[in-house]
Amino acid sequence: MKYRFMLVKIGIKKGLASKYALLFWLFSILISTTVQYFLWKAVLIGKPNREFQETISYLVLMQILTVLFPKTSYELNDKVRSGDIAIDLLKPLSISTQLLWEGIGYSLVKFAIIGVVDMLIFFWFLDFKIAFSTILMVLVTAILGYFLYFELELVLGTFSFYTYSIWGITTFKEAILLVLAGNAFPANFYPSLLKKIAQYLPFQYSYGAIGTLAQHPAWNLFIKIVVIQLIYIVAFNLLFKLLFKHSANATVIQGG
Predict the structure, then answer these.
(1) What distance in Å separates the CA atoms of residue 33 and residue 56, rounded to the nearest whole number?
(2) Which residues contact residue 12 at a Cβ distance below 8 angstroms, ignoring those fewer than 6 apart?
(3) Which listed residue, 14, 34, 102, 233, has the most CB atoms within 10 A of its CB?
């Protein structure tokens, strides 16, 4: 556990080293929130004010998750390209554990600089009226969503062993998330067919499902989301281990 705390500290130091970049990120998010506010104010004109508040709070929550979730595929890609992956493989903890705990440390800094402001905006749009049970359900599903997204990023990161850069792959992933994850607009605005497809894919359970739960908290929905998240976390973890083992062996065989 001591080694894990050390990794968290490394992640925190990385975050503090880029605190000015995070501040600019915060300003860009505030500008984006302002634009979304007036955009959805126009889109939902004539609708009840409560619907507008829920929509904006949903989008702010999606921004919080986008900020906090790790970009592990880029981290793994950098390690493979620089050759540092060889040193990491000799360490007592697995590469996935190292990336996870460093990512948690970095996310803590992002939450302190950006997330707190976003959280205040989120509660402000809801007039600070949100039940403790709802906070608990959203917190649990958000944490599981973090792990699910982390595992997905790990799987994408394994392509680093075969390509010089995974920029194109991650760009494609972002496009998929934009369409199927519900982090750009609430899932209830989806066409029925797209909504049905998204329910069976993992992307929405890192983002949109959490926002839906925050809007319409219910224990049966909470249990459904948690079960699906756990299934996908285990599935992606097994897939990553299989891909990484094959990729690392191939790299050694090729003399990389």
Answers:
(1) 8
(2) 105, 106, 108, 109
(3) 102
